[in-house]
Design goal:
3 copies of one chain form a homotrimer.
Chain A (H helix, E strand, L loop, with lengths): L9 E2 L1 E2 L28 H5 L8 E6 L5 H13 L4 E6 L7 H11 L8 E5 L10 E6 L3 E5 L5 H7 L1 E6 L11 H14 L25 E7 L5 E6 L5 E6 L2 E6 L13 E4 L4 E5 L16 E4 L1
Helix pairs in contact in A: 2-5, 3-4
Chain lengths: 297, 297, 297
């Protein structure tokens, strides 16, 4: 009696060992950091699109807790049933490409290889900015070509970028639903990059300012912490120069050790310096614009 | 040597090809738009409740980001382990059946067939309003009989409605947990509709006002956009008549093209006209009640 | 021809029947409420970590809708691919251990057995408070030893607690990412408790005050309802004594029956008494501190 594992359209699932998942697009790359030995179960993804739960899509947007994110989830499940969809962050300040780029840059590395980041902070939606799908050394990124993806893509190592076509019936205010989510879902279902669109150059090259100990204020978080892109260099106190301010602030390791009623410097979870105030918003007493140059030395 | 695919209680998973999932309830229906050929793997759902990840439940509620939604997720995972549970939208204005109905009506179509919509905007919880589970041509809807489900159900095509019994120990303020989530989970696990309760008539028949070019304000979103149920008819400018207002406003295709400091009309992602103000809330300068009749021609 | 179910690294998935999932740690326990007969498919979890979707992690935190929760989800998917991760509640008032403990205590019971609760309300992060993983009769809890887990753990029945080591490179402000999420993920992937750390004693023993009909205000929810830990005892009206207030308030069963403009008492979804005001915040007119002792008789 024959033993046919594909009998009656059923299918044996591969064990998703950490790092074992490989998108078919990987097969094109000549090395690039991936191990070349061992099982490559992702070929099944290519053959049988939509296999349950092997692909992971993480959403970053400025949509807040709206139904717009819910609709993206619906679109993805329709095109790639069973894909795990997770929210990275949807509370980017509306249209703040810079904040979105910083959060993506500091967070992407904690996700498993081959995660597909669906990123939408897109003030130019409906204009002629490109829509992109990008493969890097270890990940995929889908979103507008406005700088949002650039710091993460550059750090991880660009391998391939394609321009997503805009269907004629796409809503001019909602490419997230009609362009980006479908592209992310197709990647999740195993579609090769080159079937998503023609090869493209990334145009918008957002870089965070950094020159020695001069960096920038990349973000103010919801607690009012003023976050920079400057790393801790082991000092007990720092000279801080930004806009009209010029101060010496103590460095403390944890909030529990922080002085009361006085600004201090600490190392945030992204490994960079932050200016904080215990139980209050530092930004409410040190009113500097997002994006300002700042020196901490 | 026998090859028993069900040996040791393991199970071969079906490939969830787009559209391949079919709830057992479909077997009752005589056609109704479903293809009748091809594999019908959902029979396994019936035989083995709770098969991983084949069913999708989408939640719409006015619970906000509370633990009430978290508890619904727990209840579902307890009764139908592995079901994919996704948030459609939980920020409906508290008790606004009308807003909930509009969001559901405009969003349900983006979800895969057989999605189970668990919908709770329920000011009458604990009263004698019916609790319903509904099967339409392509979807399932579970929620109170107060109009919330009606526009979506009517558009997709009602096939079958049953009345969910209220267990004597159900919390009178939380039928979401004790009545609706269990019903949605049982559908996800393959329970046939007629085991959920006796056949029922839908009583609350909410309809959005529309008579020629007179419609209604169906929603004000969190950005202050005033959303109507009137479609775009290709004009460059529109006469808007609502409450005391009577104005001519330009139509713009994308926010990027919008004038500064002046109200304009655009086509929202649901395909209907919205009144907007660039970088500000249109509602803050055009203070009309939700539900008002409005003419845009 | 041999029929090898593990050929080519594929794997047959077990049917996750309700209650069928068993973490390997259960094998140590001598009874304790678990049924000892029937299939125990979780042994596969032990052998093949990361099998899709069998384990469930529920997150409770005071992170709000930040990327911090998104990063936890990424860490979990990296270490235990395919794990179902769900939000229980992330809007605990910042650093309010007491509110977090109450929500966890009232909500955990609605989740399936073997759910892993990843709980982070952690004002002492970076100090010398212990980091714990706990197995109870039916669940797992991971979080700081500051009282947050204690009421739920005590009620369900403590079986085993281990102290999680803090890696030298853990961010002192983000143990959630570097200590707790990895531990929860390892449990999800089938790692036995005793491989997570040495056996530990729980130190912080938070208890909600309750002595006859004197209890405490355990929470004020986002609607301004004042929630106590006192059960309903069937009365039509209650004498309420708290701080300077001493009143008799009517009991109503549902919000729909509530009087307008007058405080009333109702039974909340957790089965305890709440003081409410229809369509308004009761807390805005009865300004009592969270944690106050209150008598309702």
């Amino acid at each position: 009696m024959p033993c046919d594992p594909l009998h009656s359209f059923s299918y044996r699932i591969n064990i998703p060992q950490p790092g074992a998942f490989r998108h078919p697009a990987r097969r094109k790359s000549a090395g690039g950091g991936e191990s070349s030995s061992g099982p490559r179960p992702a070929r099944h993804l290519h053959t049988f699109p939509g296999v349950i739960g092997l692909a992971l899509i993480a959403i970053l947007s400025d949509f807040g807790q709206t139904e717009y994110v819910g609709i993206l989830r619906g679109v993805i499940q329709r095109l790639a049933p069973g894909t795990t969809v997770t929210d990275l962050y949807n509370e980017v300040r509306p249209q703040s490409i810079r904040e979105g780029a910083w959060v993506l840059y500091t967070a992407y590395r904690y996700f498993p290889e081959d995660t597909i980041f669906l990123c939408v902070v897109d003030p130019g939606v409906g204009s002629d900015r490109q829509a992109l799908a990008i493969r890097t050394r270890r990940y995929f990124f889908v979103g507008p070509d406005n700088g949002l993806l650039f710091p993460a893509v550059t750090e991880d190592g660009l391998k391939e970028a394609v321009q997503l076509p805009i269907p004629p019936d796409a809503a001019p205010t909602f490419h997230a639903r009609d362009v980006f989510a479908p592209a992310a879902a197709r990647l999740a279902a195993g579609t090769p990059m080159n079937e998503l669109g023609p090869s493209a150059e990334i145009k918008a090259r957002l870089r965070f300012h950094k020159k020695g100990r001069e960096g920038e204020i990349v973000r103010v978080d919801r607690f009012g912490n003023i976050i920079t892109n400057l790393p801790h260099i082991g000092k007990d106190s720092y000279h801080v120069i930004v806009e009209g301010y010029r101060r010496t602030l103590p460095f403390v390791r944890t909030y529990a050790e922080a002085p009361r009623g006085r600004l201090f410097v600490t190392e945030g979870s992204a490994g960079t310096l932050e200016i904080s105030l215990r139980n209050r918003s530092a930004w409410s007493v040190m009113d500097v614009p997002l994006g300002s140059k700042i020196t901490i030395e």
